[in-house]
Design goal:
This protein is α+β, with helices and mostly antiparallel strands and 585 residues long. 16% of the residues lie in helices and 41% in strands. The protein is built from 9 helices and 24 strands. A hairpin with a 4-residue loop joins strand 2 and strand 3.
Length: 585
């Protein structure tokens, strides 16, 4: 995302057993009992050849049951019970499936993640090991991580009335599956699906929700959501299948979107409305180490930002005396390259670095609601306005998980970055840089932007041509999911110098996710003290509701209310009404 505070300033069928066997009430064969057939004995009055046929059939059954029913089907989760035999309620059971292949390989779908592993089966005993999984950050309410953990506790299984029952070790619970509607897919197609999705859902390593990789992941996850207009989704399905095939064949994942924003002020001494659009082509091309834990990729994003009318939404707030951005990212610089860098990852993305034309806001003070195209619009709830983050330019960033919970991100970039220019002159000749370092704690690597507490420190050199002295600051952010639905946040920052908009800023709010359709409600409240002496503190509020009309089209009504705008002493309250649209392919 571009903010730029210094310049205004996201196989498989059941075995077909055509065996007609009568089942008298008393069984006499030990083998039949061992195989689990509770009522079976051969009919003594049959001719010898018929009796021999039945014996052969019985032996065959003993060899293939119960394994034959286990292999091949795609089993879809129906119920989960805990160690107290109480039902665990989860959403979208269709997003959790398992498939046992003949070569003792198991395919697993755990919500937004695909996984592979091995299994061992003897009689009714069963053990499962997961050894490869995508690392997508699943939406709120997801049971992905717990499902993958529980499936590896499998101890035994049985098939009762075409349902697969898996009992867990130490009586820790039970999982019950039914035959999935997807059982017409072959193992080859399942493997293909795993590989293609693994490209789109590959963990970005360190980028936030607005980074290229995470936007690609979020858009792919949305294809699994319910839609208000499913007929439209069906029209575009071949296009998304083409993209997945391309990702599988050559490792290229990409997205195209168009974003529109219209805003109207309740009152203004200048312009009182603005509108603009953003066309983007962005992607990630994995050129080295595909399907390994250390891939190297070329990341790109080309944009055209334009206005309709007199001014762009990014500048509308200043028309009414508000010191801040009410339409973050919706500027009018025309064509620009906002990402063009090499990304190298190690240890499944837990260590990674980027170098090239980077967007610092992808890595600085990030949390789960920092994408201005899908989350809040006001700068106060995105990158903290007390951080003097520059526009895109040459730079680098490094991120690493120091442990299962602690991480570190650091980097530097051109303090005079401009996405419409190559930037070699300012980076090397002017040598004025923005530096940042962040230490954070998260519940797990996969949820690092949902459950996140961190401290960020930054410094920017003096910019001689812009006549802005060097500045520094520190920021704190905490966000956490409650029941994987509500995401409250608290963010605050302090700056020393004149480079940032605010000397002090504190923001609180929440996001409310609706997992079934991808809708999102957001509410924020912020208090900011401008760096310029004599200006009053400002209070900013924003509420938005993102509505997914289709799997790839969302509209977002938005209202911002500003109290005591710092540059307009004559107004106490100003409202900004907005409507946003995003169409992605």
């Amino acid at each position: 995302m571009i903010i730029g505070q210094q310049g205004l300033k996201s196989q498989a069928q059941e075995l077909n057993k055509n065996i007609n066997i009568s089942k008298p009430e008393k069984f006499t064969k030990p083998q039949a009992k061992k195989s689990g057939w509770s009522k079976f004995q051969p009919v003594k009055n049959f001719p010898n050849n018929q009796n021999n046929n039945l014996i052969v059939q019985e032996n065959l059954i003993n060899q293939i049951e119960p394994k034959s029913k286990l292999i091949g089907e795609i089993w879809q989760l129906q119920e989960i019970y805990d160690d107290q035999n109480e039902l665990i309620n989860i959403d979208n059971q269709t997003n959790y499936t398992i498939q046992f292949l003949p070569n003792e390989v198991i395919n697993i779908k755990a919500d937004c993640n695909q996984a592979k592993g091995t299994y061992t089966q003897a009689d009714n005993s069963l053990s499962i090991i997961v050894n490869l999984t995508t690392m997508a950050i699943c939406p709120p309410e997801s049971y992905s991580e717990e499902f993958l953990r529980q499936i590896q506790l499998a101890k035994s299984f049985s098939i009762q009335e075409n349902k697969l029952h898996i009992d867990l070790e130490n009586s820790q619970g039970k999982l019950i599956f039914i035959t999935s509607q997807e059982n017409s897919q072959s193992p080859e197609n399942q493997q293909k699906n795993f590989e293609s999705l693994s490209n789109y859902q590959n963990a970005s390593g360190l980028g936030g929700p607005s980074s290229v990789n995470n936007e690609l992941k979020e858009d792919t996850q949305q294809q699994k959501k319910e839609s208000l207009l499913p007929g439209i989704d069906a029209v575009f399905q071949p296009w998304f299948e083409f993209k997945e095939n391309l990702a599988e064949d050559i490792g290229l994942t990409f997205g195209i979107d168009y974003n529109f924003l219209y805003q109207k002020l309740s009152d203004s001494p200048g312009f009182d409305e603005a509108s603009g659009g953003i066309f983007r082509f962005f992607g990630n091309w994995t050129l080295l180490g595909r399907n390994t834990n250390a891939p190297g990729s070329f990341v790109f994003k080309v944009e055209n930002r334009h206005r309709f009318g007199k001014i762009a939404p990014q500048n509308l707030g200043f028309q009414t005396g508000y010191l801040g951005l009410t339409g973050t990212q919706f500027s009018d610089f025309g064509w620009g390259v906002t990402n063009l860098y090499w990304q190298q990852k190690f240890n499944d993305g837990k260590i990674s670095f980027v170098i090239g034309t980077v967007d610092p806001t992808d890595y600085v003070d990030i949390y789960g609601l920092t994408n201005p195209l899908t989350h809040f619009q006001n700068l106060a709830f995105l990158t903290d306005p007390s951080i003097a983050v520059p526009n895109q330019g040459l730079g680098m960033a490094v991120g690493a998980m120091l442990s299962d919970n602690f991480y570190l991100i650091t980097g530097f970039s051109d303090a005079n970055g401009d996405p419409t220019k190559a930037g070699f002159d300012t980076f090397f000749d002017d040598a004025e840089y923005f530096k940042h370092i962040e230490l954070g704690w998260t519940s797990s690597f996969e949820r690092r932007y949902f459950d996140n507490i961190h401290i960020t420190a930054w410094h920017v050199d003096e910019r001689e041509k812009a006549q802005v002295p060097d500045s520094w600051g520190i920021a704190f952010s905490a966000s956490w999911f409650i029941n994987d639905r509500w995401m409250p946040f608290l963010r605050m920052g302090y700056s020393d110098g004149e480079a940032a908009l605010n000397e002090r800023n504190i923001s609180i709010g929440f996001g409310r996710y609706f997992n079934r359709n991808g809708n999102l409600l957001g509410l924020g409240l912020s208090l900011g003290k401008p760096v310029t002496e004599g200006l009053d503190d400002q209070v900013t509020t924003e509420v938005f509701y993102r509505i997914q009309m289709t799997q790839n089209w969302a509209i977002t009504p938005d209202i911002q209310v500003i109290f005591d705008p710092a540059l307009n002493l004559e107004e106490d309250v100003i409202a900004v009404f907005g409507i946003r649209s995003r169409l992605n392919f």
